[in-house]
Amino acid sequence: MSDRAAQYQMQITGHPVTEGYIVDGVKFDGFTDGTLIEVKSYYDQFTENGHWKPWFTGEQGILNQAYNQIRVAGTTPIEWVFAQPETAALVEDLLTRNGYAISVIVVPPK
């Protein structure tokens, strides 16, 4: 993880990246106000003009992570926090198309 990404994760969770929140063996970046938090910082290098770049093959990995988090979360809400709106929109669409109830928000880096 880059220093910039680590700083962003700390901005969102209030904890260093060395600390996480584990639920039944599945890692989340934090837990705030009854919500499990996953921080997705800088991913726009994989996007272009509102689409994934043709060589990007990470969609299944995103779905796998979402599935595993939903599986262990039970009724606890999950929120994925993005630094960049373009990536957030693409991931939100991917999650919605696959029926995954994860809230996606954008919080600009400070």
Biggest beta-sheet profile: 4 strands, mixed
* Average pLDDT metric: 94
Biggest sheet: strand arrangement: 3-4-7-8
How would you describe the shape? Answer: globular
> What structural category do the secondary elements indicate?
alpha/beta
Please provide the count of β strands: 8
Helix content: 25-40%
Rg over C-alpha atoms, rounded to the nearest angstrom? 13 Å
- The residue ranges in which pLDDT falls below 50 over 5 or more consecutive positions are none
Strand content: 25-35%
Tally of contiguous helical segments: 3
The succession of helices and strands, N to C, reads HEEEEEEHEHE
Instruction: Calculate the terminal CA-CA distance, rounded to whole Å.
Output: 18 Å
Commentary on this structure:
- The chain has one domain.
- The protein contains three helices and eight strands.
- It has helices spanning 3-13, 59-73, 85-97; strands spanning 21-23, 26-28, 30-32, 35-40, 47-48, 51-52, 78-82, 103-106.
Give a quick rundown of the structure.
Helices cover 35% and strands 25% of the residues. It has 110 residues and is of the alpha/beta class. The chain starts with a helix and ends with a strand.
List keywords for this structure.
single chain; 110 residues; alpha/beta; four-stranded mixed β-sheet; two-stranded antiparallel sheet; 8 strands; 25% strand; Tox-REase-5_dom; Tox-REase-5 domain-containing protein
